[in-house]
Specification:
mainly alpha, two-stranded antiparallel sheet, Cytochrome Bc1 Complex, Chain D, domain 2, 2 strands, 13 helices
Amino acid sequence: MGRVPTTRRAFSVLMLGLAVAAGAHAGGSGDLGPLPSLKANKAKAELGKRLFFDKRLSGDAAISCATCHQPEHGYSHPDALSPGYPGNGHFRNSPTLVNVAHKKIWLHDGRIGTSLNDVTREMLTETYIMNMDMRIMQERLKQDPVYVKMFKDAGMGEPSNGGVRNAIPEYLKTLTSKNAPFDTGNMSDAAKRGQGLFTGKAGCVSCHTGPLLSDGKYHNLGVPENFAIFRDPMNHQAFITYNMFMGIPNYMNLKRDLGAFNQNKSVEGAEMRKGAFMTPTLRELKYTAPYMHNGTLATLDEVVAFYDRGGGRDPNKSAMLKPLRLTAGERSDLVAFLESLSGDPLTGDAYVWSEPYPEEYEAIANWRNVRN
């Protein structure tokens, strides 16, 4: 074969590159769709539900998992920064737990990538979150006849730490998006136009892909700092505790959330991860305002406007973010599409424990001679 002229070769390479890019783009949009169903053990999930709403799982029995992950708010919290353990605040927004069982990496900084069992343990035992000594928790549960029966019915023996860490994730499997217009095909015309922008001009699908609408990676968007973290002593002491535990140098003088940098601080290129956070799911956004890892954007209109500007300012900001130059109508359509990703609220008895808990433990007769 004769030699291909340079201009033809360059043109062929250019067209191949465009085809690959288009294929990847189309492939990303094709991956969007309903989440697969998860099978949950009914008895374990019911036990996990009671545990999730039980304040006795915190150190001073004042807060439960549902204190920060409220069903009416898509299992997130309406404050920009999550509440913390009494006497503490927090330094990040409370993420939704709807569809959390479908994830492989958890928390805004992605620091847990093993299992929901480990996430559950960290949330229960971390001092600024629920501050629970799991040995005490186990003994509390053993004093409740309802738990004794529920653990036994679930085939888990007597109440135990390991049983709690298995039962709560089993309950979380039941928190899966249901009847979202995007999944049922009942989107409005505006939402359909928004989907076209999402997978096309706006390029959202570059990071928000798959059934969760998340690539499971971290990116720096230039999200502005929430200075309530540093101005409020309650929030700041939680921030200090976290960074001290993560081994961050000079943490007392730190005035930014380092995000994914905290995972592997010593590896090459770690500095570029400062200010990067995991791509969140876009499902159930109707219920989970405010947005971003620190709750600095109050509405979906603000979120779309933020991306339309090309994100915020940060020396490590991802090169993927560029001004989109959307029209007002296009921004509105994009919001309509984002709203179509929210399904039925998971607030009924199937998801929420509504029966009362005992206010105090019943005394054990002849307790000196009764095996605990």
